[in-house]
Amino acid sequence: MTTTLVLGGARSGKSRYAEQLLRHREGVVYVAPGPVPDADDLEWAERVAAHRARRPCGWRTVETHDLAGVLRTATGPVLVDCLATWLTSVVDGIGAWDDRERASATVGARTRELLDAWSRATVDVVAVSNEVGMAVVPATASGRLFRDELGRLNSAVSAASDRVVLVVAGRVLDLSGCPVVEP
């Protein structure tokens, strides 16, 4: 059993790489914690359809925000794509984009639940997440909240992972042997 975190920017190839890690495995559960596609956002629906089309037909998609629950009950490999959409769903779920303190407390609690399940996983787990810390400082408070919370989430999952990679322009950089910076 191994836990792998795949980080990268938009269109970096991070999801494709994560899928390649499990491509030849049977019974993969693909966890999609983002919004369910609908007719109100055709661009999102197209993105989701493209992701689904790439996956092997034997993979099962689970659309849920309960990542810890999936990890606790998994009997086969799990691919989570992605932690950034999960984080968004957590903050959306409590309507706290304008309440940094409440958002941080809830995200912290949910992250601890996720880390507990991540560290106890009895199957191979691969999680994808956006690396947003290399961009400009967001102009809005909610944008800064998202960037800061995702940075903390990525750091925490990274510290608990067996393997961490960064995908940049389709190239994979293995960060696993790099020292971890204490928070």
Notes on the protein architecture:
The chain has 183 residues and is α/β, with parallel strands linked by helices. It is built from six helices and seven strands. A seven-stranded mixed β-sheet has the order 3-2-4-5-1-6-7, with helices on both faces. α3 runs parallel beside α5 and α5 runs parallel beside α6. The chain is globular and about 40 Å long. It starts with a strand and ends in a 9-residue tail after the last strand. The mean pLDDT is 92.
Category from helices, strands and their pairing: alpha/beta
Helix content: 40-55%
Secondary-structure element order, as H and E? EHEHEHEHHEHEE
- Taking all Cα atoms into account, the compactness measure Rg is 16 Å
Tally of individual helices: 6
**Uncertain runs with pLDDT below 50, 5 residues or more?**
none
Secondary structure tally: strands = 7
Terminal CA distance reads: 27 Å
Arrangement of strands in the largest sheet: 3-2-4-5-1-6-7
